[in-house]
Amino acid sequence: MDKLLEQLAEVLTSPRLHEEFLVGLWDTIYSSVLATAAACLLGLVLGVLLVAGEKDGVYPLPAPLMKALNLVINILRSVPFLILMIFVLPLSGVLVGTKVGTMASVPPLIIASTPFVARLVEAALREVDQGVLEAAQAMGCSPFQIVWKVILPESLPSLLSAATTSFITILSYGAMAGAIGGGGLGKIAINYGYYKYNVGVMLAATVLIVILVQIIQSVGTHLAVRLDRRVRTVERKGRRRELRGQERKDRRRPGM
Q: To bridge 145 with a disulfide, which of 15, 40, 48, 141 should be the other Cys (CB 3.0-4.6 Å)?
């Protein structure tokens, strides 16, 4: 216990560790943001294809193509991230010029996360009311118009929740990447904590990651709730009931 307290005191007072943590925090944030943006864009396209291209979708695609797409997504989702990263590191060397560091972990993060995001997007799009889609088709909307003006707006809160979950997942993947040469807080926890038997450093890195997750989850949940028209409708109905109740009370008061 005394050793842990000494290590924590070093983390709090050492300028060198402060600088390392600041750099690691920035590396974690920007690599996660880059990977999340790319994975969400690619996953959105794949998710739309999975829903719109099925047999009863708004733009059916050939069955062999859909089976191949589902197979590839399932295979990539099944491979553990660390193993996938080892396989993809040569591609990182080609794309970003290095196999070590924060940027080297971005391509594996994108490849590992895109299938996960695609399934989240697929689940979100399937929540759209079929009656709304049938009404759009009856009005003569094209498949692109149905997707762009009906399906995506209707599922926006669920898509935002999916993006929040994706960011948190990518953040955890990025921390794991520190074990095989990635950067960020994961690298600090491994190199300065685990390898040097410094529990204080590992604990500090973990706390920073937890704080990031809590912030992202809170912001994402708040935005998803604010964009959910069903919640706004319930709130408006609740306010109307309150106003009507207040009006009835006012009428019952003497002299009113």
A: 141
Cβ-based burial of 225 (10 A; exposed 0-12, middle 13-18, buried ≥19): middle
CB neighbour burial string for 82-110, b if at least 16 within 10 angstroms, e if fewer: eebbeebbeebeeeeeebebbbbbbbbbb
Angle between helices 15-52 and 63-78 (to 10 degrees): 160
Return d(Cα 135, Cα 152) in angstroms, integer: 15
Rounding to the nearest 10 degrees, give the CA dihedral for residues 43, 48, 51, 52.
-160
- List the structure tokens of 20: 């390392």
The 10s digit of each residue's pLDDT in 45-59 is: 999 999 999 988 888
Amino acid at position 77, single letter: R
Mean pLDDT in runs of 10 for the chain (256 residues)?
80 86 91 93 94 88 93 91 86 84 88 93 89 85 88 90 92 85 86 86 91 92 79 49 55 55
Q: What does each C-alpha distance from 104 to 11, 83, 128, 184 come to in angstroms?
A: 27, 15, 38, 11
User: Could you tell me which of 92, 95, 87, 43 has the C-alpha nearest to residue 69?
Assistant: 43
Whole-prediction pTM:
0.83
d(CA 179, CA 189) in angstroms, rounded, equals 9
Provide the pLDDT for residue 210: 92
